[in-house]
Amino acid sequence: MATARGQLATCPEPEDTTEIPSGSDLHLRASQLARAILTGFERHYSFFAEITSDARQRFERADWEAVREASAQRISFYDARVSETIAKLHSTFEIKCLDERLWQEVKRVYTEMLRHHSRPELAETFFNSVFCQLFERKYYHNDNIFVTSTVKRDELATRYQVCMSFHPRAAGLEHCIWEILSAFYFNIPYEDIERDARRIADAFREREPRAAAAMEDLRIDVLESPFYRNKAAYLIGRVIWGDELQPFVIPLINNAQGGIYADTLLTTREQMEAVFNFARAYFMAKTPVPAATVAFLQSLMPDKPLAELYMSIGFQKQAKNEFYRDFLDHLAKSEDPFRLAEGTPGMVMLVFTLPSYGYVFKVIRDHFPPPKDVTREQVKQRYQQVKLHDRVGRMADTLEFSDVAFPLDRFPADLITELQAEVPSLLEIDGDVLVLKHVYIERRMLPLNLFLDVADEDEKRMALKDWGLAIKQLMAVNIFPGDLLFKNFGVNCLGKVVFYDYDEIAYLTDCKFRRIPQPKTPEDEMSAEPWFSVGPYDIFPEEFPSFLCPDPETREMLIDTHPDLFDYRYWRARQKDIRNGIHGDVFPYSSRICFPRPNKGPTAGNPIAQA
Asked: At a CB cut-off of 8 Å and minimum separation 6, what does 582 contact?
């Protein structure tokens, strides 16, 4: 992550003392370097596009294990291709030190190569990644890398059409929707496409009567590729009439019996936000011109950050770049200082925030007090585990950065003192810049324990119910959060409970859920220490209410909302499901709005599906 604009106004002279090429020699060498980097990017994108394109076949085969494997595998592609490209540059060009004059010419030539490219913003980010791994942080400024993008996104969105348009005025709304459902050429049939078209049309008329009344003027745009994730294929579109725009999503489900059906129609902004929530896994969707696809999504969700839209379609490195640019812009327009985040301080992470910005910055402490017995590397591995896993809307996604440069004058003395005491190995102060060598960045949420402190009885009951549902949905994808304390969960802008502390996370099937043995003697019963052996993976669910809720009223409410969570047999049953290959369906919408289903095949309406 480069430093903010203007903070490193002057850079040291290049360290390379070799003779600098001039004229045509410099341009030739720069062109060769630029071509090698762009070739590395194209190789990366070909791998990315291939595994993404296969999403349709995995959906049609109902091969959900392959879906999970492909999602995890795709995330690793980028770093592997960057490493390959760097190795190629070293072996071919014998790069040792930075020649700024040469590399500024490389950037200029590379920019020219991207003039008519369909994915220029991604190629710029790849260039940045290569440069930043080749050279020191002090050279990360806009003369050398793309701190500011040169891409004209509006032109890309105008030049490339990424959606299909349909007009219901000729043959009616039902037939228009039938055409939409037919346009994607799945290799398995719909259960009943006429039924689904009729249901969607009826739901649209009911939920959007103003649009339905303007049938003569309606245009329906649908992205050319379904968005695949887990067990569903989502058709993403918008209805336009006059100056009005209405987003919609149609989730398609494979019934695992050789047929597809439309599960519901989503039309509200809140429902759209839930589908694209930052706590969910990334979509697989063909995006030959990502900027145009993102522009379409922005028309549906204008308040959603650009970084989250790129993240949602699997371009997490581009998301980091977009986040950083937005962050620099926010720093330039704001004056408030950083401060420690609200909530109970963690033993593993030190967390601070900028009050005017909706994110928190998390750094791993140098030392963890007892009873924590994890290492820094184990913590990093668990955060990566979450990145690779299906997050089912219940685990916050993170942006991981190295060498993050912050303006020193925005850090008050007490926060600097805290950082110096807790993370000295990660901290560097360089002039007017504070550098952190490793940082996780997450969406800021209100910690659940603080929410419960100020909630009324109804709000508290709803939050506890959703906390339990979050635990059950994580169980369904083989995740045990480890530390269930309410301080490790947050309430997001949609009012949903999301887990965000991963240092004790484990696979559900690795845990051993036990009942507390009966004491053999009165002394056992009165003992402050356990009278029975406890292994490192032993968990006793009947203890959960006591340490979660010191307050008796809250404890009673918790037990009343999810009594099964405190019975070891319930946890063992969920483990058995996972071992038998039964993974729960956790869809980003409530089962209450699903279309009726006959008594056959899976549906999004099972108990844990209500996201």
From this structure: none
Query: At residue 8, does pLDDT exceed 50?
Result: no
In whole angstroms, what is the distance from residue 215 CA to residue 445 CA? Answer: 41
Residue 8's SS3 state is coil
**Residue 3 dihedral angles phi and psi, to the nearest 5°:** -80, 165
Distance (Å) of CA 160 to CA 183, 288, 295, 315, 322:
19, 9, 11, 19, 21
pLDDT at 436: 97
For residue 117, is pLDDT > 60?
yes
Cα 49 → chain centroid? 19
Specify the pLDDT at position 528: 65
How far lies 420's CA from each of 83, 350, 453, in Å?
33, 11, 32
Instruction: With beta carbons less than 8 A apart as the criterion, state whether 512 and 539 touch.
Output: yes
**Tokens 């994808």, residue?**
477
CA-CA-CA-CA torsion sign (535, 540, 544, 547)? negative
Q: Can you list the alpha helix ranges (DSSP code H) found in 114-224? A: 120-134, 153-159, 173-182, 193-207, 209-213
Tell me the C-alpha to C-alpha distance, in Å, between residue 597 and each of 180, 265, 373, 591, 609.
21, 14, 49, 11, 15
- Indicate which residues carry an active-site annotation: 397
What tens digit of pLDDT does each residue of 252-261 get? 999 989 999 9
Q: Report residue 162 as tokens.
A: 């990424």
**Residue in 454, 444, 463 with CA at minimum distance from that of residue 342:** 444
4: CB partners within 8 A, 6+ apart:
328, 331, 332, 405, 406, 407
Residue 125: which of 227, 28, 48, 25 has the closest Cα? Answer: 48
Matching residue, tokens 């896994």? 281
**Cβ contacts of residue 1 below 8 Å, gap of 6+?**
320, 324, 401, 402, 403, 404, 405
Across 416-540, the runs of DSSP E, i.e. the strands, are 427-430, 433-443, 446-447, 479-480, 489-491, 497-499, 506-507, 512-513, 538-539
Residue 535 confidence (pLDDT): 80
> Phi and psi of 360, rounded to 5°?
-120, 155
Q: What 3-state class would DSSP assign to 429?
A: strand
Q: What is the pLDDT averaged over residues 263-274?
A: 93
Give the type of residue at 552: P
Q: Which residues contact 25 (CB under 8 A, 6 or more apart)?
A: none
pLDDT digit string (tens) for 531-578? 667 788 899 999 999 989 988 999 999 999 999 999 999 999 999 999
- Render the burial of 438-457: b for 16+ CB within 10 Å, e for the rest: bbbbbbbbebbbbbbeebee
Answer yes or no: pTM beyond 0.70: yes
pLDDT value at residue 11: 36
